[in-house]
Amino acid sequence: MPFTNIDIASANASRRSTRRCARRLRRKRELAKEGVTTENGTRTAAAGQYDRPDRASFDPYRRAMNTRAHYRGSMNYRHAFHAGNFADVFKHAILIGLLGALKAKPTPFCYVDTHAGRGLYDLRGDAAQRTHEHLDGVQRLLAATQLPAPLQAYVDLVRSFDAGDNGTLASYPGSPLIAGRLMREQDRAIVCELHEEEAAALRAALHGDPRFAIHRRDGYASLRALLPPAQKRGLVLIDPPFEAQASEYTQIQNALENAFERWPNAIHAIWYPIKLRDPIAPFHRWLASHERPADVLVAELLLHPDNSMLRLNGCGLAIVNPPWQFDRELGTWLPALADLLAQSRYGAARIDWLKTDAG
Asked: Band of the pLDDT at 6, cuts 50, 70, 90?
């Protein structure tokens, strides 16, 4: 009786399975000679190595995400590992400037934060001590003298939360707590955090502040559900962890469409990481070509050339409807910040208009 196609396919599959089992057995024996505990012929996580190195083994940021996943289960990102780093310094110094511009008028404003985090971060805790990223971030400014006035205002505000011994910081405030220090009695805030543990910590950090409405929900969806607030003026900060990598920009654009429609008078500030330039360019083009007649200002801080996915080379903030002459204000201190935080000769600052209402 002749073999059918099904018989041949089954035989081929059986041979492939046999070869895989043989390879695993050989590998298990090799690892046993090296004294490594194995499971199914593969080095276990406890051994600290793997059969075949994947991309994460070459990427310090992916390795950090894997470590965070161990602590948070399904939540890959945990900002406690990065609190007070160069990106926080950049973002929060700009945030202080934006809120200061809103305070220049007596009418109340509303601050909206889509990815609020836990509020206050322990720089002496296990997470921060694993990475020490704050040492090349906020700690550099604490040791600096003759800072430009906006950077000194940032340092003074951060110090007010808890300065430790010898001028070091024991804790670092997230965006909601920084906003809370700058808001007036008549101002309000809507802050969103999806993950249960972080949201609970945020509630504790805000101590029942009546100016804050805290929502444990998806921040992107909140721009459709919670806008507009009662206040006509305000700021929307979109500061996602970019776990979705380049596709995160699609979520941002969809959320901004809702925000622009519901609260057109607000300032919208979108933080983004810089590894390669290519994923950022389409987002910038989308902002520049959007039919909404508003100015779009971009500020960026680079520590390294934007040509490698293996590290965070810099970060940027796109500001839709920025305060008047805010580009000039940034120009008074952002180049100085780039010098203070430089890690190579490629450090640089960029301030540029993607779009102006006049053109």
From this structure: very low
